Amino acid sequence: MLQRIVKPVLLLVLLVLTKCTYATEGMWLPQLLSGLNEKEMKGMGMKITAADIYNINKGSLKDAIVSFGGFCTAEVISEQGLLLTNHHCGYDAIQKHSSLQNNFLENGFWAKSAVEELPNPGLFATFIVRIDDVTKAALQDVKPGMSERERQSAIDKRLNEIKQAARRESWQEVMVKPFYEGNQYFLFVTETYRDVRLVGAPPSAIGKFGSDTDNWVWPRHTGDFSMFRIYAGKDGRPAPYSKDNVPLKPKYALTISLKGLKQNDFTMVLGFPGRTTEYLPSEGVKQTVEVLDAAKVQMRDAALKIMDGYMRKDEQIKIQYAAKYAGTANYWKKWMGEMQGVKQTRGIAKKLQYEDTYRRMMEANPKWKQSYSGILDSLNEYYRQIQPYAQTRDYYSELVKNVEIFTVGDRLINFLNDVHERGEGQYESMRQQFLESMQSFYQNYNASVDHDICASLIDLYAKGVPAPYAGNDFARIWQENNKDGRALADKLYAATSLTSPEKLKAFIQQPYNTVIAQMWSDPATRLVMATRKGFVDNVSKPLADIQANINNLQRTYMQAQMDVMGSKKNFYPDANSTLRVTYGKVDGYNPRDAVHYDFYTYLDGVMEKYIPGDYEFDVPARLIELYKKKDYGRYGVNGRMPVCFIASNHTTGGNSGSPALDAHGRLVGLNFDRTWEGTMSDINFDPSICRNIMVDIRYVLFVIDKYAGCNRLIQEMKII
Ligand code: ARG
Ligand code: ASP
User: What is the value of pTM for the model shown?
Assistant: First the structure.
């Protein structure tokens, strides 16, 4: 009797305990999985081994993953070098091949045969051949008490030797990167292919469905994918573009599973996450969300409202500003989510609590106390010191990014500097080139929009930046305009030569010396130079000096955390655009009281969101037809078409296009976003609300096969 009761209770306790210790947080190094994570991964349901993921002796999962152009991830899904990535990762390439007659963004693109696959100069795909720990050699000349600069040059000297000595083939490359804030160094042998051709893309109404309104949002219904192919020389090695190149025979291609996932199923994501800051002290987290995010959001808020107002009234402006709007809105929305997420999960209080535990444990051990006492307090103190400078940096960078007259001003100044360096004799020929290079800028420029954004953002800048940091030249301009952004903008845009290619041309048509002399009298170049001078004279140096102190202490604090708290948790290095593995479970979440989100979306949801003719929520007629006929082929489940799903994988920017793999290492989805409530995962991952968003591979295949009828691509994949 007792037995029977105790056993289930014990089991339940065990279950709860193991569940709590699942650490879905972390972006792990693939070569270290066997020592650090394999056991836990298997406990969560993984059926393969760490050696199936990373193996230098035979093809393994990592050999199917590439850094796509350095900004996204893609994966090889056929023996002929076929690559899968996101629509938003392939967007530029698709756009460049588009014209009014052949609008691939609007209508989609499907190469009917190899000859129709389109080259993309500048685009590349990088494989990771091998990863070695070179920490010892890299740090061997580092001595206690070195300044940051001395330390770095001692390391750089060794890194050169390490790279020279690294074992590699002639066509391979080597790079070394710091991890754990510079406590460890790893060497990467890589292979980069530079002939990467566009193979297919759905129309934006599928690949970008929901656009900015749905961006960072769950429930999601976007078929965010596009396809490319890696071409190699006849010997299979990297080669510059040539029509004689052949499709790459990869070391490993992913197998695709149509089985789909259930709640709590194991998933992992392999990819190239860009940047996270998970080990900030509490002051750093507080500053990020309460000061820096807030400042950037405030600036972008104003700029976006103005763009939106014009775009709604004017079709031409809408075309000119759509991409800029989307670019600005992406992180604006992310930062708002981050601010809210940290607040909602009490992220700062949790950091303080963590710091308390750390302090107590550190002080209880004489050795640690001797090495680490006071580090955390100094680090927090430096964060307080850097605050006004960091805030000014962010106001300044948002000002010059969002007010486009600053872009023209900057380019003009750089051009005149170039002329100065190469000799005034070159002025005339360089002038022509410069004007041509400005054509594409002016094509998408509207001076009224820019005038309004300038008026508004200059006000915010002048209020947000302490006067001594903005500098005397800016103060003078500000005074002259009665501290009124609108007055400043009215005068500036009426008088400047920078608002149109014609005026710019007339301006620089004058002799070089006249132009130089007039730089301080044109109100736009004067404003550009004044704000830049304020920043350079008053902010750059103290900012860099305090940052160097922070980097130094952040490194010691990282080591301290690993020593002191290492028994409590495994530490993973912050993202730095190197190959990582993250794993989690398929699961919904509760974003707020009384609200629960499920983990799967279906094509029915696309139809619920459908707004005919809308630029974000229109649905192609052919998709509606397939939906009505329920013509899903082998990709549907019980008469429904799965579209997207979420899981607790820890991802960040750069993970877009990463494969989502099941317990057997088979491709089941394609990562492309995170949920809004969980975007604070970059500074404070919380498994309760942090979810990554993936498009289900069955939806991808359904679109290729049933929607686009591009069967030749399906044929070359390995589908089970
Ligand atoms: N939020 C995703 C990421 O950070 C997707 C961005 C592209 N999509 C968009 N609607 N702007 O990159
Ligand atoms: N959308 C992001 C990317 O493009 C992914 C993310 O931030 O979750 O990499």
Answer: 0.93
